[in-house]
Amino acid sequence: MVIGKRYNLIYNALWQLPYRQVDFAGDAFWKELQQMSKDGKLSPLTQRLYFSPTRPMFELFDLESDPSEFNNLIGSEEHAAVERELKAALQEWMILERDYLPLPVPPAPGR
After folding, report:
1. What is the mean pLDDT of residues 27-37?
2. Rg (CA), the chain
């Protein structure tokens, strides 16, 4: 994850694996949410955020206009420069720290 002054980029390197909540998985709150999901009582947004089978590989959020991080901006032409900048910063950090996950930015063609 890279948090800038305004934007937050999340890299889910293992995006294809089933998504599971880990922060509050044993809490009563989570058990209640699970039951509400089974009963079809959650809003579509809450259902998508907590019970999607996987996460997208990248998530980009505007912390100014969307502090709760509901609207993923990845792929938006308007935010392409921010996306490139934060992915490059993440990749540089991963290389310097010898993070062995796949790098988030593919090499340029011919390299």
Report:
1. 90
2. 16
How many residues belong to the chain?
111
Q: How high is the pLDDT of residue 9?
A: 97
CA geometry: angle at 82 spanning 2 and 3, to 5°? 20
Nearest residue to 50 (alpha-carbon basis) of 65, 64, 70, 66: 70
> What is the rounded distance in angstroms from the CA atom of residue 64 to the CA atom of residue 97?
29
Cα separations (Å) of 109 from 36, 37, 88, 104, 105?
Answer: 48, 44, 16, 15, 12
Which residues are CB-neighbours of 26 under 8 A, at least 6 positions away?
Answer: none
Question: From residue 70, how far is each of 7, 47, 54, 103 by CA, in Å?
Answer: 13, 12, 16, 25
pLDDT in tens, 69-105: 999 999 999 999 999 999 999 999 999 999 878 877 7
How far apart, in Å, are the Cα atoms of 98 and each of 19, 37, 92, 93, 104?
Answer: 25, 40, 10, 8, 14
- The model carries a pTM of 0.77
